[in-house]
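Meet my pick.
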Amino acid sequence: MMKASNFVLAACAFSGSFVAFGFQVSPPSYTRPACLSHQNESFLPHSSAILPKNARNAGSLLRVATAMDGGSVNEAMISQIDQKIQKYEKKQEKLAAKLESAKAEIEKYQATKRRYLQGASLGGDSSVANFQETTARSLLKSMMWRVIAGGVTFVTSLRFSGSIQTALSIVGSDFFSKAATMFIGERVMNKSQAGRKSGADDVGRSLAKALLWRLFAICNTLTMSYVIAKDLSMASKIAGSDAIFKTGLMFVYERVWAKVEWGKEYIIEFSI
């Protein structure tokens, strides 16, 4: 009995060593001992070779689907990157064109400056020096004038109406209605070079602007004063007083701005 049990143990150990080194031992026709079955199960490699056929097919399909999904995602990302590259290449071309244009303008003005310093004249007659006003200059002139003119309108409206509320209403309506129209008028007048000499508006141009603007302003103030005060006589007095004070005041205002260089863009016309 001792020899038989020793023989069984030796056989278990021997077959376990074969499994550990990757050899498979064909199962005998008889039922193996529990120790041998336990050792074979614990040392079996985790391979798909021992999985059922259905399980192996399912795993293969999953790997193929994953590979296909990954490929489509990569293609979409590459396509998006290509689009970004094309977008910035177009931007680069546009900026390069602007850079070349700027270089050409710089060279042109530098050449004009050199010729001027060598004794040539700019704009034909140096006493003319045509210029245009920038949008910012026109806007600032309009807003500043509305503040000054609004003060005058408030005083005259308060004087004839006797009501602060009525005076404020007239000034408010004047401010918003005339600020835009004066700005538009400045931009329209800016297109004409009549009366501009030596880089500034002359006296005749300033007087013409003051009179033209006052014609419109009288009609505007008269209308708004009548709408608010409901009194034609009072509205006429307010508009008339405005016409007397503001015509001279605007002429002075235009003469002051004629001496301000800010916001002027001189028109350079080179000639020998």
User: Anything to note?
Assistant: The first strand starts at residue 121 and ends at 122.
